[in-house]
Amino acid sequence: MKTTTNFIKCAILVFAISFTSCSKDGDIGPIGPQGEQGIQGEQGEQGPAGEDGEALGVPGPQGEQGQQGETGPAGEDGTNGTDGTNGVDGEDGNANVATYTYDLSSESGATITVNATALSQEVIDNDLILGYLLKNGNTYTPIPAPIYAFGLGDNSDIAVEISLNRYWMFFYEVGTENLKSVTAGQLDELKLIVIESNSTTSGKSSKAKTLSNLKSAGVDTNDYYAVMDYYGLAY
Q: Which of 14, 56, 159, 201 lies at a CB distance of 3.0 to 4.6 Å from 205, suitable for a disulfide?
C-alpha cells in the first residue's frame, strides 16, 4: 500500500514538472506562408479641391512705344449747306471766311427778316458779320447804312438787328424814326460775310480786332468788292 502511494506521488511530480516546462516560452517557429490578398474595398468620397497654385510665371516688362507714323494728307473742305427758308446755298469760303446769299426779290414791308442758320450764338458773340444789300443787279451797299438809295427817287435809313438764326432789317424815313415800307422788286439780295475771329479774346474785342486788322491791311469794309478780293472770294 505504501509502495502504491509513493508511485502516485512520483507520477504527480513528473506531471507538474512537464506542465511547468511546457508553459515556458519556446523558440520562435518559422514564419508561415503569406495569406491571399483580401477583396479591395469600395472607393471613398472625393475630398474638397485644394487651393490654386501660384502663376506659372511673372509677366515681363512692357516694351517701348513704337514711333508715330507720318501724318496723312488733309481732307478737302466741304461745301456750305442751304441756309434759311428764303436763302440759297452759301458760297465756299477760305479757312476762316464764309459767305451766304439770300434772295430778297419778293420781299416787301418796313421790316424784312432773313432766316440765317449760320448765325449761331458763337458766331454772333465772336465773329465779324458784314451785311450788303444788292439792288439793280450790280450795286452792293453796306448795312446798317445811314442813307440807302433805292434808285427810285427815295432814300431810307436802314437799321440791322442780329439774333440767333435771324437777320433783321428795318427801313425808316431818312432822319426820322418813322418806318417806311419797301415794295417787292426794290431789293435783289442780301449777302452776309462771316469772318471768323482768330483772336484769343472773345466778344466785342475779337470783332474790333478783326476790323482793325482789315483796316491795317488797307481794306475798306464798306466796299463789298474790296472785302471779297482781299479774301479771294467770288462775287
A: 201
